[in-house]
Write a structure and sequence with these properties.
Oligomer: single chain
Structural class: alpha+beta
Number of strands: 16
Number of domains: 2
Largest sheet: 7 strands, antiparallel
Number of helices: 20
CATH class of the largest domain: Alpha Beta
Strand content: 15-25%
Helix content: 25-40%
Radius of gyration: 25 Å
CATH topology of the largest domain: c-terminal autoproteolytic domain of nucleoporin nup98
């Protein structure tokens, strides 16, 4: 992914002092997801162009921090579009300029210069209008042209990708901070887990201009992935900054210390800053990392915070994440059936299996998944190698697919498909139905899937619910409650089951029409 920044001024090559990169040299450094290069393709006395080239390692995306989020094991566009990965590359390449430091030419640090920034492919789910709304108030002239999905096939329509050119008078630090914050905001996704450290970074790099931005609330929500507790903390800090407008403004140095926060997936150790008196101590839920930081089987970040968002909306403290509630509801349904055996179809990293092994009534447990990486994590989560021989005979973890007939899936009292079916396209969904309901035929089948009615929570103003994007890039569909019931009716009639449809997660009493974030179907063999 290539971004160019063109600066026009007398003795333009001097901008190399501010950027910390000599115009006659090529800079290269590896980071968590690949390699970043900086070079100058155009240098004259009155104008220079700086190119930031980010080469993303596809294998690194799977093995690195991104493997803990929605990119795990899925084909994605991260190597080719400007995104949160580009923000990390900006920080790696221009860390001193982003911090406003230049010992060699301090006179250039605070000088407004004429910049032209070109981004050939920027992913924006909300269209060119949002790009304009975010950059124009900062003093840029904005050109945003939508790119076709495939230029060879015009009938396919347009993509969510835009060619963007920004032109304006900015200090170097301001221009870099705008890109650093707003690129992931426009993409509306991050390749790592969002926690209190992200709120600290937003304040450190955005407080100088964010307080008076007309889209401040939208920027904060999207940057923090709709996590209500973090949003409230940042809003409180920005409000205090606004209250001090008549006093000397707080600087980034006053807001931050040099003590790094641990566990930030995209950062070098020296980069993350902690906001003093701005953020309350995060709760354990907010600081979970590694396998506990995200939902199994590739769940969407927006979904992991739905429970927090809903509880904050109705005035209750956030206690549990939505996926934890799902797993508890599934285990309650297993328990209520009197089952002595359980197969977890699409077990992912084994979170349901951890709960299942504590149920003494379950004498036979099987976890099946198509990802060997996820199964290895499940074994680590269960500490499988240290289990007794009796426990290892009781619980098995195996590579397999629920799309093909498998004798190992037969004879179970209960089967669980937790946030699995929405990852299947129509032909594979039909294959799953035949394998699970027609061939394996457990006495009880428990299925959870997102409730699309609830997606309106993440809509832009005046955006209809059907226009809100799916919660995860790999979801092939998300059903409304009516669509889910229609599917369950067909399954029950075709395979001799009865079913009950339930809602999962807290619903807003002021909006009963949208229901809860997830829905669960409990099928019983008639």
């Amino acid at each position: 992914m290539l971004i160019t920044l063109t600066c026009a001024m007398p003795n333009a090559p001097d901008i190399g002092y501010v950027l910390g990169k000599h115009p006659g040299s090529i800079f290269m450094r590896q980071f968590s997801a690949g390699t970043v290069w900086v070079y100058y393709p155009h240098v004259v006395d009155e104008q220079v162009t700086v190119a930031l080239l980010t080469e993303i390692d596809p294998v690194g995306l799977v093995r690195g921090p991104a493997a803990l989020t929605q990119l795990d094991q899925y084909v994605n566009d991260r190597p080719y579009v400007a995104s949160s990965l580009t923000s990390v590359a900006l920080r790696v390449a221009f860390s001193s300029a982003l911090a406003g430091r230049c010992e060699a030419r301090p006179d250039l640090v605070g000088r407004s210069l004429h910049w032209e920034v070109t981004i050939p492919a920027l992913n924006c789910d909300a269209g060119a209008d949002l790009i304009t709304r975010l950059f124009t108030p900062l003093g840029y002239e904005v050109v945003a042209e939508c790119l076709p999905l495939d230029a060879r096939f015009p009938a396919w329509g347009e993509a969510n990708l835009f060619y963007v050119r920004l032109t304006g008078e900015q200090t170097t630090q301001a221009a870099l901070s705008h890109l650093y914050v707003l690129l992931p905001v426009l993409d509306n996704a991050k390749h790592y887990y969002v926690d209190a450290q992200e709120a600290a970074k937003l304040l450190a790099h955005g407080s100088a201009w964010l307080t008076n931005h007309p889209e401040r609330d939208l920027i904060t929500r999207r940057y923090l992935r709709y996590k209500r507790p973090l949003i409230q903390q940042v809003e409180s800090s920005l409000a205090r900054l606004l209250a001090k407008d008549d006093e000397a403004p707080e600087t980034v140095d006053e807001l931050a210390t040099e003590e790094p926060l641990k566990g930030a997936h995209d950062a070098e150790p020296h980069e993350i800053v902690q906001v003093v008196s701005a953020l309350e101590a995060p709760t354990p839920t907010e600081t979970e990392h590694d396998m506990d930081a995200v939902e199994a089987v590739g769940k969407a970040p927006v979904e992991t915070v739905a429970i927090e968002t809903a509880k904050a909306t109705v005035g209750e403290p956030p206690e549990q994440r939505l996926h934890d509630l799902r797993l508890q509801a599934v285990m309650e349904a297993v328990r209520a059936s009197g089952a002595h055996s359980l197969v977890d179809l699409g077990c992912g990293e084994g979170r349901l299996l951890v709960l299942a092994i504590t149920e003494r009534s379950l004498t036979r447990i099987l976890g099946i998944d198509v990802s060997s990486t996820a199964l290895a994590r499940a074994r680590r989560r269960l500490h499988y190698e240290t289990l007794s021989d009796a426990q290892q005979r009781r619980i098995q973890i195996a590579l397999g697919s629920l799309l093909y007939r498998d004798k190992r899936l037969e004879g179970f009292d209960a089967a669980a498909l937790v946030e699995v079916i929405e990852h299947l396209d129509a032909p594979r969904l039909g294959a799953m139905e035949r394998v699970v309901f027609g061939l394996a035929r457990p006495r009880r089948v428990i299925v959870t899937t997102p409730n699309r009615d609830y997606n309106i929570r993440w809509a832009q103003p005046d955006q209809p619910a059907e226009a809100v994007r799916l919660r995860h890039g790999d979801h092939r569909f998300e059903w409304t409650r009516a669509e889910g019931r229609a599917w369950a009716d067909r399954i029950a009639a075709s395979y001799g089951y009865t079913f009950e449809q339930r809602e999962l997660g807290p619903s807003d009493p002021d909006s009963p029409e949208i229901g809860a974030p997830s829905q669960m179907f409990v099928f019983d063999l008639g």
